[in-house]
Amino acid sequence: MEFRVDRKYFHKIRTNIICYSLIVAMIGGLFAYMGEMEIFGYSEKTGTVTGIYSNSSLNVRTGPGTTYSILQSDGGYVGLKNGYVVTVKGEEYAADGAKWYKISFIYTNGKTLEGYVRSDYLTVSDDAEYEPDADFEAYMTAQGFPESYKNDLRKLHTKYPNWVFVADKINLDWNEVVENESVIGRSLISKNSISSWKSTDTKAYDWATGTWYSFDGDAWVAASEELVAYALDPRNFLDETYIFQFESLSYQPSYQTEEGLKKLVSGKFLAGGTISNDNGGTMTYTQAIMNAAQISGASPFYIASSIIQEIGANGTSGSISGTVKGYEGYYNYYNIGAYTTSSLTAIQRGLAYARGDYVTDASARKEYYLPWNTRYKSIVGGAVYVAKNYISRGQDTLYYKKFDFVDTPYTHQYMTHIIGARQEAVTTSKGYTDEMKSNLKLVFKIPVFNNMPESVCTIPTKDGSPNNVLSSLAVDGISLTPSFNMFTQNYDIIVENNVSSIKVSAAAVDGKAKVSGTGSHSLNVGNNTIKITVTAENGDKREYTLSVVRKAGENGGQEGELKVTVNGLKADNANKTVTGISPESTVQSVKEKYVVQNGTIKVTDKSGNEKTGTVGTGDKVLIYNNSGTLVYEHNIIIYGDVNGDGKITVKDSLAVRKDILGIEKVAGWYAKAADANKANDGITVKDALMIRKHILNLGSITQ
């Protein structure tokens, strides 16, 4: 009988940092997997500060990310200049996905300090230079590794010549794999992750409220397709730490020893205390895990890292407390069968499995040591379950436990946590000393898919709300076809010939999103296109398009002579100018001064782009007849507004002074606007004085 296994629920109740591991505890005990991840077994390297401006220095932080404070020494902030040589002691990833180096260095005050700098400001020397190895090159080619795999494999081979890399050909199309692993509910990530790690599919994200739907408990949401692609792409993990997600999970007694196991669990609850051995005596956790490895055939390093991944560093999860109400005396160290149902929490569901509620076959109960009413039976029985149901069927790496490509693909996956394999690899790698890594013939089975992209699928780093939909879109007095829907982006409108302009209004669902393209739009006879753009907080854009058809009048739209009356402004058709506009006037207020019959009016900037908001010197008022022919062009001049922003400020005063001093000349309509006293005598100190007085409220420039 097949049971669903879900390993990720208990990450949400972790509250402490697992020492030297990638796990970061979040407020309220929620574990955010977007957090910092430390790489173990790191060989120290030499790094040199680069890319800093000559008069600047590189801030050294107290942790991996700009949210951490700048390191201080002797009361001052620590900064490093270009060329500063440091020792690189490790690598960690910040919440935004950026890599940071942990460094040690002797500072200018003679003190040895440690801190963190972002990787793109440090040039790190390779451990060893790759020397052409014809045999290894031939081996990689024979295995069928694509070129995009080979460079990282060369580096690993140089440092660890005994390691064996096996190309595991998966006869599935890459895009198909990404699509299937992105099915909503199949791959999850912490709700506290950055927005680009979370799916915005309509089944995963409520666009109307800007919230993500929860899956399998409140702390988990669907992972984005970009994050799924990153986690699937083996080329992201070909380094000396992450590659351990491709190592065989089978027990190798020759080198997977209790000594190595103790190193792996150092600082965690598995390192201390004793449990009953079911024979009236006691044993340590490491002894129990080694027994589980011998009985199940699973790697003891994997067993330990799996327990740590599920239960946490301190072992405080309710699934092994033995005190959960209704399930007293039962333990589930692997969270087998642990997922939320309509009537049970994930912990309760897992403990119900431990009690044997879901396994009725007597031989299976015996094989899995059910019920798990002692800690020892849970550790051993759970290892047997995983070994039989995953390792022995070909899901024999951490990667393949998450991503199932055996028999019916995608249907038998041990966990939903999308980057769980990556994180377990970090813990597993710590079980190997540098000496073991250098001397052992470790075998890594690395998947290769059909039609993989040439470039590596990088981890997404964008944050901020992705919501870029409208909550409303309307045109005054006119109905949209079809009716408005936040996901419908194209609309059609037909208006009569006497409708020369329309007013568009729109509002975004998210208050942090920006909407452009609303307001009044003049219409030519025939087809008109109006675009409303919504820009989300994270920069994602969505465009709504109004296709507006203005009907032609009788006689093909030529009927009626164009008549234009300008009220309160001075329009000069011969010189193509309009004056009398007050500073900081809006486009709409200018349009209202014009009465246009049998034609349309438009206000643009100097480049011909239709404007909204404030008008300034150099903008244009354009008037067309019903045939769409431009008849009048009025260039706006606001005296004193020399830079064209529609205001009279010190910037304009400075521009006039530069012109007078011959530093930078003002030309065109802006020169006309600089003649503030309207004496037609060019730009003089009198004009500069008038602008200065206007700014100081000692006088006013008459328009």
* Largest sheet properties: 5 strands, antiparallel
Poorly predicted parts: 1-41
User: How many strands in all?
Assistant: 31
Helix share, percent: 10-25%
- In total, the number of domains comes to 6
The geometry reads as: elongated
What does this 3D model show about the protein?
- This protein is an alpha+beta fold.
- The protein folds into six domains: 34-124, SH3 type barrels (Roll), CATH 2.30.30.40; 138-249 and 394-407 and 415-463, no CATH class; 257-389, no CATH class; 470-550, Immunoglobulin-like, CATH 2.60.40; 563-636, no CATH class; 650-695, no CATH class.
- It has 17 helices and 31 strands.
- The strands form eleven sheets. It has a five-stranded antiparallel beta sheet with strand order 8-7-6-1-9, with no helix packed on it. It has a five-stranded mixed beta sheet with strand order 26-27-31-30-29, with no helix packed on it.
- A hairpin with a 5-residue loop joins strand 23 (526-535) and strand 24.
- Helix 15 runs antiparallel to helix 17.
- The chain is elongated, with a radius of gyration of 35 Å.
